[in-house]
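Q: What does the assembly look like in three dimensions?
Context provided by user:
Components: two
Sequences:
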Amino acid sequence: ELKVEQNPLFLSMQEGKNYTIYCNYSTTSDRLYWYRQDPGKSLESLFVLLSNGAVKQEGRLMASLDTKARLSTLHITAAVHDLSATYFCAVGRAGNMLTFGGGTRLMVKP
Amino acid sequence: DSGVTQTPKHLITATGQRVTLRCSPRSGDLSVYWYQQSLDQGLQFLIQYYNGEERAKGNILERFSAQQFPDLHSELNLSSLELGDSALYFCASSFLDTLGTEAFFGQGTRLTVV
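A: Here is the predicted structure of the complete assembly.
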């Protein structure tokens, strides 16, 4: 059974600081997705990583994928309050179904 | 706005009842996925349809069923509802069901069973 684990589950950080969210998964896959969810809202697609070594950046967020280590990271640079949300990673399976991690709740304090 | 429309946004119903959740995918998207988000189970894949045909099932209970119509909208039917079925139900769509195709989520339907 595919398992996807994120850590930390909760992250409180100061504005301007850097931090990394980790996503480990238990089976071979080279399709990894990152989503953002604001409280009570939908999931917003952030990144789709399609191969080993893939790196994508958008604003203060950068995602990478290491399929050999079965690890993806979401790096936050110089955090701002607007980044406060819950971030999910998900592993793609055949048919493009997604198995989600438990989520990382990020709170950025002024 | 992702372009995926779900109705209703909120639904409150009693145990034992049956409800239908509706999803209109983004224009042109052929694949529809249903997910359930609850506090104890997290985000779980329920079922997938592609161009009208069921493609895959996840952790979907036998009391739940779904279908995709010729116009590609989809409905998720939940019957004999229990308190534990209370959750946020999301529909997502993608153009294809090829692994790696970006999937877009609707706003969700929050179901409360009382």
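Follow-up: The interface with chain A takes residues 2, 31, 33, 35, 42-45, 48, 50, 55-56, 58, 90, 92, 94, 96-108, 110 of chain B (CB under 8 Å).
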